[in-house]
Amino acid sequence: MENRLRLFLLIPLLVLLSSGCALLHRNEVPDSEPNNAPVVSNASSPTSAEITEPVIEPKVERRTIKTPRIDSENFELGAYGGVISIEDFGSHPVVGARLAYHVTESFFVEGSYGQSKAGISSAESLFNIQVITEPQRKYNYYALSAGWNALPGEVFVGENRAYNTALYFLIGAGSTHFAGDDRFTLNGGFGCRLLLTDWLATHIDIRDYLYDTDLLGKKKVVNNLEASLGLSFFF
Amino acid sequence: MRCLLFLLLSCIATSVFAATNTLEVVVADPFIELHTGPGKGYPVFFVVSRDDRIEVLKERTGWYLVREHQGREGWVTEQQLLHTLDPDGNVIKLDAPTLESLSRSRFQGSLMLGDFDGASLISLSGSYGLTDHMSVQLTLNHALGNISNMEMATLDITHTLFPEWRVSPYLSIGTGLIRTRPHTTQVQEVDTTDQMSFFGAGVRLYISRRFIARAEYHNNYTYTSRNENEESTEWKTGFAFFF
């Protein structure tokens, strides 16, 4: 324990020392020119005017390199609505929001949040009991997922219109809050993105959310399937 | 909350609808190809030849939306746009992210999954670089276990040992708060909030563009109100992005 405490005290010292040194020297100009360089006075160089006048004027076209600011649109924010089947508690409407960051043309990461409300389970209606209270029927989740645009393509509407599409697969993890508890939740699914313009997209998603529960007395894995339609903006 | 939502929506509206400064360039290669979408799979539908002017409208994942003088719009690869000049004949330098830009970048966000003393851990963090080596990081952790769940918010200082290397180890030290919530199906216990501190070590691997893989280990100390402090281990791995 004592050794660990020493280690605990030594690590910050090491981090602070090494980064502190970098902080102290970050704004220093490299000492490439000696400070004690001799000062040349005008009196000692009477022919300096002749020297500064070049014999041949070089005509070199200097090309400057510009870094332009171009609008980047790699983030996508959207809302969705659909139906979620909450195992044992029926299918109910779900609404949610998602934020995605497109890393490459093929991969993206996505964070989503959705909420719904569970109904009455079969056990509750059969035996006229209440397994969970009314406030505990609130169902919400968040999911952090990685996505792969597996099948990019186009759909054609009539002769003159074509829209870009992508069929993508998602896998991720998150948490589901239901019956007063948070449960670690794995999610997976697929969807189709159809771009109406270069910044507006519609989505159709099928997603499965899996988590362990012992709510009805026996521990089991719950599969909650969700189907949704959504709209999103690239920005 | 409504104010925040309004602010967010106005930011997006500004970003989406604002008349951004477009860039006009001249094609210097024999030709450049216009794709129907921002991806290699989308077909080439038009070719712009040398000395023609094109307008660069926006960028997405290394692809650029351009408009040629007759109004056709298509997507061009970064490699092809590098062979264009501005109307004065100057070389265009695109701000393509590389390993070098990683060491110069200031903001980084990461998303990791792992284990916190047997509980599944979800971790989201954002960091701001003070120097090439040192950054401050805010992390939100959610650990979900069989007996209880934990929510943590920590602030740490991270020191990247070799920021210019593709693979670099880093050390971190930080402090924060941890809230423990026992499951409702367990023996009823009250939620507790305690202070914690940790030191950690990890490895960062630059993959491509703005993409980084990270893996790290933490040794946590929770200062409880009981006689003994709690010591716990945490490991996590995931992805990070820099801006």
Task: Describe what this molecule looks like in 3D.
The complex is a heterodimer of chains A (235) and B (243). Chain A has a domain at 77-234: Porin (Beta Barrel), CATH 2.40.160.20. Chain A has an eight-stranded antiparallel β-barrel with strand order 1-2-3-4-5-6-7-8. Chain A starts with a helix and ends with a strand. In chain A, a hairpin with a 4-residue loop joins strand 2 and strand 3 (107-117). Chain A contains three helices and eight strands; from the N terminus they run ααβββαβββββ. By secondary structure, chain A is mainly beta. Chain B has two domains: 21-95, Roll (SH3 type barrels); 101-242, Porin. In chain B, strands 8-9-10-11-12-13-14-15 form an eight-stranded antiparallel β-barrel. At the A-B interface, helix 1, strand 3, strand 4, strand 5 and strand 6 of A face helix 1, strand 4, strand 5, strand 9 and strand 10 of B.
Short note summarizing the structure:
The complex is a heterodimer of chains A (235) and B (243). By secondary structure, chain A is mainly β. Chain A is built from three helices and eight strands; from the N terminus they run H-H-E-E-E-H-E-E-E-E-E.
